[in-house]
Amino acid sequence: MTMPALTDLTGTYVLDPVHTRIGFVARHAMITKVRGAFHEFEGTLHLDGSDPAKSRASVSIQADSIDTGNGDRDGHLRTNDFLDAPNHPRITFASTKAEQVDDTHFRLTGDLTIKGTSKSISIDFEFTGAAQDSFGNQRVGFEGAITVSRKDYGLTWNAALEGGGVLVGDKVVLEFDISAIKQV
Predict the structure, then answer these.
(1) CATH fourth-level superfamily of 6-182
(2) What is the spatial distance between Cα 27 and Cα 59, in angstroms, rounded to a whole number?
(3) Do 119 and 151 form a contact (C-beta atoms < 8 A)?
(4) Is the pTM of this model over 0.85?
């Protein structure tokens, strides 16, 4: 696939929630991984193809839209032990810096806020392409991931295991599979 020139992609885009996945992976009982996703979110991306450093992005996620495929676990994740969704209904990211690393890789630095705590993080993204869809919409795609410490955001609940170790790992991989639609 030939990548379009970045200058052709300049504009403001909104995340397509039907074709975007915001997910995570966390270690459970020190032996396996639990995967999940958030199903309710919105986001805006402004791409500046002439000067990628002027690009920016923001995302707002409904914390209570967490889904790991297990209702009891999801209910626990919504409590104060983890996300405290009733008191902190949104997880947000707002970029403060954008860098083009090479032709298809970018780094977004910004503030990630979870459970009322904000930390600056840098997420590496790969530009996966651009296309006009069957409805005439211009789309762009990006994939990225970052590993964060849940303790950095006050998510410290855990349980000791009989054989040693803990029930929930500290490191969580946040995954972003982005499809965004250009606005007129």
Answers:
(1) Lipid/polyisoprenoid-binding, YceI-like (2.40.128.110)
(2) 25
(3) no
(4) yes
